[in-house]
Design brief:
Length: 242
């Protein structure tokens, strides 16, 4: 049977403001096939990060479903979904060195030191940090920390990696370089991923397909070429600069 990957069906997430419940995500549906990287692109406050948290199980769904290979994830807690998470600040453990950070998920999975070491070495080499195993995280640059965070997220081989604005805290030149490296690593490892960003250059560099969001709604999904050529309404064309 062919794996179906991630399926998001009519998902609604609401938040309370001034005694009223307002939609943060308003009936969003899409799928991500195994090995594909989907970018969620839109301005700040459009609901893309809330949607990512809902997929992870960190936000309650008012309506709709999130499924993996056809199985509804509603009864599955966050730590049992087999999903990896990577955030804007990396959230590294300051009391662990680089190798200790990357090995954390492997350790939680019960792998011993002899099994963890080659995986840690492989991933650090893949993200361009070969030989950094014993470095302390406070000595690293912002870009190096995000590379460690990426290696740590990939170490347990998650069936889905969720990335929430992982490059937005970096300067423009470094973001462009890391976007290229992120795309390369995700495709080399054949990682299925959802990548949230407000930067269209990042989305076009990293994602196979891109979903454009406005006001909690998914307006259009397509490849970079399709979105540039076929903006379906004025708001999409204006946001993409077409």
């Amino acid at each position: 049977m062919t794996a179906r990957g991630l399926e998001v069906s009519d998902v609604v997430v609401e938040y309370e403001a001034a005694g009223r419940w307002l939609p943060a995500v308003a009936g969003v549906s899409f799928d991500v096939v195994p090995g594909e990287v989907l970018g969620l692109l839109g301005p700040s406050g459009c609901g893309k990060s809330t949607l990512l948290r809902a997929i992870a199980g960190l936000e309650r769904l008012v309506r709709g479903a999130v499924s993996w290979d056809g199985a509804d994830l509603a009864p599955v807690p966050v730590h049992r979904r087999g999903f990896g998470l990577m955030f804007q600040d990396g959230q590294l453990f300051p009391h662990r060195d680089v190798a200790g950070n990357v090995a954390f998920g492997l350790q939680m999975a019960g792998l011993g030191p002899a099994e963890r070491a080659p995986r840690v070495h492989e991933l650090l080499a893949m993200v361009g940090l070969e030989g950094f195993e014993r470095r302390q995280v406070e000595t690293l640059s912002g870009g190096e920390r995000q590379r460690v965070a990426l290696a740590r997220s990939l170490a347990p081989t998650p069936r889905l990696l969720l990335l929430d604005e992982p490059l937005s805290a970096l300067d423009r030149a470094l973001r462009e370089q890391l976007a290229e490296d992120l795309a390369r690593v995700l495709h080399e490892t054949r990682t299925t991923a959802v990548f949230v960003t407000h930067d269209q250059d990042e989305a076009f560099a990293v994602a196979d397909r891109i979903g454009v969001m406005f006001s909690g709604k998914l307006v259009q999904v397509g490849t970079a070429a399709e979105l540039r050529a076929e903006g379906i309404d004025r708001s999409v064309r204006a946001f993409l600069g077409n």
